[in-house]
Amino acid sequence: MTSSTLTRRDLMKRGAAASLGLPAVAAFAQATLPKGPMTLVVPFAAGGATDVVGRLVAQKLSERIARTIVVENVGGGGGSIGAAKAAKATADGSVLLMGTIATHVINPLSVGSSPYDPQRDFTPISLLAKVPNVLLVSNAVKAQNLRDLIALIRSQPGKFAYGSSGVGTPPHLSGELFKAMAGVDIVHVPYKGGGPAMSDLIGGQIPLLFDVLSGAASHIRSGSVRALAMTLDQRVPSFPELPTMAEAGLPGYETYTWNAIFGPAGVPRGVVDMLSKELVAVIALPDVQAKLKELSATPVGSTPEVLAALVKSDLAKMGSLIKSIGGLKRE
């Protein structure tokens, strides 16, 4: 009798949600999530690409589950301070984290003790998007493609350098993977951010730069720098003419950063499944797809299992790479 009553109530909730034009899962959200507003911790300063994606996703998810979601920027430590705060939150789904490859792979693999374990202390919910890095050259460099660049560097060993936004950043590791796979001798020049590095590339102070594609896009379009290849395993809609590193001459090469939603360890499976399904629906929305592509991001939207597998594989891949260069000490 009780089972029958609960089934009828669930059906009534679904019907009410449908009559209001709301997704049926919103009715279940009220039954599984704690009352009150939710918080999405963005572990970087406001205004950056991660913050833009976080606020967009928070708004759309809020509309779908009929809950207020407050975005809280907690910067510092390359994302580790905000991630640590989210990891210590109550595991009921009321606090979520906008995680990245920095918070869940690079920081934990860097020199020094991490304030959290990227696998044990979090509940994966959904991978939202992948963002490629890009190999850029100054207009003074004669090479017009990746193969020509590799040949040029090999002909002048020790005379080329590449810039990045800093030690331990995804662009830095993209450069180190390039060095290893291409077998070239180039020096890393770390900058305090992508902006200063780009200025020096445009000015010819450095010949090469690995940068996040979203940050480099306007400079590529203006012609102030040249893009030779980007680092995902498939081309991106914003630059369909730009080959992947694998297509351009380094088969098997792939690096990226990503945005994903995590909860603290121990979030109930029912809550995880509901949030994951809603986030997949959010990423599928046409305006969200358009915004992500504007940021040169590749929309994904995944199950918790796909995100968990990505973190595991990236820790293994980047761990081997970081070990090969003698470890990382974050600036």
Automatic annotation (TrEMBL):
Keywords: Signal. Pfam families: TctC. InterPro entries: BUG, Bug_dom1, TAT_signal. Residues 1-31 form the signal peptide. The keyword Signal applies. Belongs to the UPF0065 (bug) family. This is Tripartite tricarboxylate transporter substrate binding protein. It comes from Sphaerotilus natans subsp. natans DSM 6575.
